[in-house]
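seq:
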Amino acid sequence: MIYPFQSYKVSPAYKKSFLEELPQVSSALPEFFRATTVASQSVQQRDIFGNPRGIRQDAGVDDSLKLLLLACFNDGLLSEQAKPAQVLDLVRQLSLLWYSFGNKIDSCIFLGYYFYEMQSTALHLVDELKKQIGFLASVSGQAHRHLQDGVDTLMLSYSPHWYRAQAGIGDKKSDIFIADGDFTKTDLPRPGYQIHFKKSKLYDLRAPFFVSTQQVETPLVQQDKIVSSCPSCGQKCRGKLFSFIEIKCPKCSTVWQQKT
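struct:
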């Protein structure tokens, strides 16, 4: 099975900067990846209904994640103000980056299952771990980093500009596309799309866990034309209606692609 994020890579310069600026995180990630690789084997075991049997408690996921979060505190990536969803997204970013450095994909497959399908369980775990280690963490690393709402953003693998297509939702500024059945439309407490990949199992670690309704545009279709907003300047742009189209904004010259 080929996963959408498998081609994701970063530059050697970024890797060098990451290893130098985040020494404790860089030391904790190998053990986290080792533990989650072992855990990926446990969730591949299925019951008679085809459901994962669960995560073995001796796999070491909880302990390695605790050490990783402690390293994030000490390297200045986290503070006490961070919410569980922000902490989980930071771990997602770190996992995607560590894979892009040339590490094996098995860990990412498990994390895709755990982060997206078992998101409520994962959120509860990171919340409990953050409470346990918060008083142990050093604040020395936080002085030289700008923390937005208590968490640092390492890289943006998706944009806030999404569109609704017949078969799912997609990101205008990347090739991320979430097919129907891989998300649930929610109303309360936040209207939007909860991404879980439960139908296809094609986990994409580049994707967010949730996309709000305000971020998703339903393009206007008129006969053989489609009208969609530019993700850069908001200009309404028109294109020829095909199943997959490329649109160029006449105002700012931004070019993007989307399905219809």
